[in-house]
Amino acid sequence: MTDRTLADARRWVAHGTHLCRDALVSLDEADFGQPSLLKGWTRKHLAAHLAANADAVGNLIRWARTGEPTPMYSSLEQRADDIEDGARKSASELTNWFDQSATALGSAMDGLTPAQWAAEVLTAQGRTVPASETPWMRAREVMIHAVDLGTGVGFADLPADFLTALVTDIVGKRSAAVDGPALLVSPSDLDLSWTVAGAGDATEVTGSLAGLTAYLAGRADHDARGPDGARAPDLPRWL
Ligand code: ZN
Fold first, then answer.
1. What is the distance in A from the centroid of ligand 1 to the CA of 124?
2. Ligand 1 centroid from CA 64, angstroms
3. Which ranges in the chain are annotated with CATH 3.30.1050.20?
4. Ion ligand 1: residues, CB < 5 A
5. What CATH number is given for 160-229 in this structure?
6. Which residues of the chain form beta strands (DSSP E)?
7. How far is the CA of 57 from the centre of ligand 1 (A)?
8. How far away, in angstroms, is 153 Cα from ligand 1 center?
9. How many whole angstroms separate alpha carbon 133 and alpha carbon 138?
10. Confidence (pTM)
11. Which residue spans of the chain are classified as CATH 1.20.120.450?
12. 141 CA to centre of ligand 1 in angstroms
């Protein structure tokens, strides 16, 4: 298994931010109103979510710096309302919000000392984590949603070391939840495999690392297959 570092996560935040920005600036007002690859969300919803997420992760960075608890979102309703409100903004307002929030988050992260990175904060899912985990949380958002924006970026365009770290993360969460089928995840293009704890004898799923990542992340567009080319088992949600 690979161990990701804070430097890895920050590099992936920068990469994913770049991918999202390139995607957003390629879209006009009409394109922004079109569906994203996430059910029920237009690209405007997704852009608003990405910008609001940068602000929310920024709250955790402030918490780590000051010691004063500042949660990501004041409530789950507030999080949902902000996305709905954001989806009524114009394409240029959303692109600017994305840019400004991402830049502010990067500067805030640059300013943390090693002791502040080690400070504990609470995520929106209620997990207590060191602040050094927050760049990984943000990297997941910008990388996966760069695909979800539906402008042609695929999982195969994401760096292999990020995909490996993401599969490791998802496998850990799915194994802890034990709410799906047991799996042996065997990429054809990587000398690594993962086991997912779950119901029944482990089903081997094969495919490219990118395709298996998309499958495990619950995305529809993937090349994961079960034994003898059968459809890979359906999975419950992971986040
Ligand atoms: Zn998200």
1. 12
2. 22
3. 160-229
4. 141
5. 3.30.1050.20
6. 120-122, 128-130, 181-187, 194-196, 199-207
7. 12
8. 16
9. 9
10. 0.96
11. 6-153
12. 5
Which CATH number applies to 6-153? 1.20.120.450
Which tokens is 73 given?
A: 């979102």
Each residue's pLDDT expressed in tens, for the chain with a length of 239 residues: 458 999 999 999 999 999 999 999 999 999 999 999 999 999 999 999 999 999 999 999 999 999 999 999 999 999 999 999 999 999 999 999 999 999 999 999 999 999 999 999 999 989 999 999 999 999 999 999 999 999 999 999 999 999 999 999 999 999 999 999 999 999 999 999 999 999 999 999 999 999 999 999 999 999 999 999 999 999 999 87
